[in-house]
Amino acid sequence: MVKKPGNSKYVKNLNRMTVLNIIKENELVSRQQLAQLTGLTPPAITGIIRELLDMGFVMEVGLGTSQGGRKPMKLKFNAKAGYVIGVEITSHETVLVIADLENDPIHSLTLDLNMTEPDIGIPQLIEALGQVLYSEENRNKNFLGIGIAFPGLLSAREGIVKRSVNLGPKWRQFPLKETLKNEMKLPVFIESNAKSSALAEWWFGGGISFRNLVYVNLGEGISAGVISADRVIQGAQGHAGEIGHSFMMENGPLCNCGNRGCLEAICGIPALLRKANDEIAMINPQDPLKIVWEQTGKIGIEDILKSAKSEGSYSWELLQQVGKYVGLAIANVVNMYNPEAIFIGGKLGVVAETFINPIKDMVNNHSFPEVAKSVQIKISDLGVHSGVIGSCALALRELLHSDSTILEDYQLMLKNPRKLT
User: What is the pTM (predicted TM-score) of this model?
Assistant: First the structure.
């Protein structure tokens, strides 16, 4: 392998992470094969494998076929050697998931937290994380990091929330990463909900076979995560993908961002609820949404989604309009990024079959023809919690990256176990 310049400790860690990832990506592999794949000497491989076995990241699982000599011992990645916690924050709920090193979820928890004010919501989140970490069930697990999917403008590397128009005005320059890291004593990684969802779609969903894709998150807010040539597009300040603030309507409704006529102000969940409540009195008495309103005196987004399955209903027509506006925004994305696939997800994505046709029509009619013909428009099969799946993937990507210090940190943790509080 080509070694990067640097001190011996860095090179050693780089080699170990490279070996670990090769074992992870191959179901079974021998020491001899690792030497061939990495270019490292057999003694170097032997030393690295000894450390990985001692730490539990690798298991010996039997003998392979002899090529003329002793049968080689096969090695396998141990996904249960460590765990990550994924967190997706929205204004209405916060979801926590524990996943192993292959992102196989073993525990999930949905919390009703007040996230409109960080000084209230974050202490509640820290308390919930502590209860999960130190529960009888989990206290002996080796937790390696926390991934956060967050709805707002982020400085992701520093982990600072610049602004969150959907959570409220109190979210300004909040040091989310530092706050959680100091309290939880674990590495913390933060990304936007849409970029986290794009990562989940790319690694674990329908986007596995694509190098260029876009995930469109349709929920309380509207945003996109763009992956181009196997890289998540960040932009100069990390704010790329804010399609919810694409201009759609002259003198349109006021958006939380301060502008008028944004896609999110027309098609986001709060906007749909406002429109439905404003017009409910004029809806046909036999309409399924009107019946719910007559019976309960209120309507929520779940009522709209359920009644939208009835073709021709008020909710169905409402989502046809959503499809047209969202389709126009996606057409612009298609022209700019030329993706292989677009995935529709988020809270509204669960009924995207209802309005996928107007989306496709708008893309076909308003994208460059050759580009429009080559893009596939799909409904994500990851469900409403793609963001939390992506937050786990985010933590795993950072922890298992070739120049990560996970193994150095893990060795230190074994010598100095995390104290229970």
Answer: 0.85
E strand residue ranges, 129-268 = 143-150, 153-155, 160-163, 172-174, 188-192, 213-218, 222-228, 231-232
Query: What would the mean pLDDT of 100-118 be, rounded to a whole number?
Result: 90
Helix (H, G, I), strand (E, B) or coil at 343: strand
Residue-wise pLDDT tens digits, 118-172: 999 999 999 999 999 989 898 888 899 999 999 989 987 888 999 998 898 999 9
Rounded mean pLDDT of 392-418? 71
Going 100 to 103 to 108 to 113, the CA torsion angle's sign is: positive
Given a contact cutoff of 8 angstroms between Cβ atoms, the answer to whether 149 and 197 are in contact is yes
Give the whole-angstrom CA distance, residue 101 versus residue 104: 7
Per-residue model confidence (pLDDT) at position 4: 43
- Per-residue confidence (pLDDT) for residue 91, from 0 to 100: 80
Residue 348 has pLDDT above 70, yes or no: yes
Q: Which residue has the tokens 């989604």?
A: 305
Q: How far apart are CA 398 and CA 216, in angstroms?
A: 23
- Alpha helices by DSSP H, listed for 114-191, are 118-133, 176-184
Which of the 8 DSSP states describes residue 259? -
**pLDDT score at 1:** 39
Hey, what are 327's tokens?
A: 């389709």
Q: How far apart are CA 421 and CA 418, in angstroms?
A: 9
Q: Tell me if residue 163 falls in helix, strand or coil.
A: strand
CA distance 232 to 230: 7
Q: Which of 350, 384, 377, 348 lies closest to 362, judged by CA? A: 377
Residue 2: pLDDT band with limits 50, 70, 90: very low
Radius of gyration of the chain (CA): 24
CA 342 to chain centroid, in Å, comes to 16
Interval 47-51 mean pLDDT: 92
Q: How far apart are CA 272 and CA 320, in angstroms?
A: 12
In degrees and rounded to multiples of 5, residue 158 shows phi and psi of -80, -15
Under a CB-based contact definition with an 8 Å cutoff, are residues 253 and 245 in contact? no
Q: Please tell me the distance from the alpha carbon of residue 194 to that of residue 240, in angstroms, as a whole number.
A: 10
pLDDT at 408 over 80: no
The first and second tokens of residue 321, run together, are: 């309009």
Strand order in the sheet with 188-192: 105-111, 94-100, 83-89, 143-150, 188-192
| Element containing residue 381 per DSSP (H, E) | none
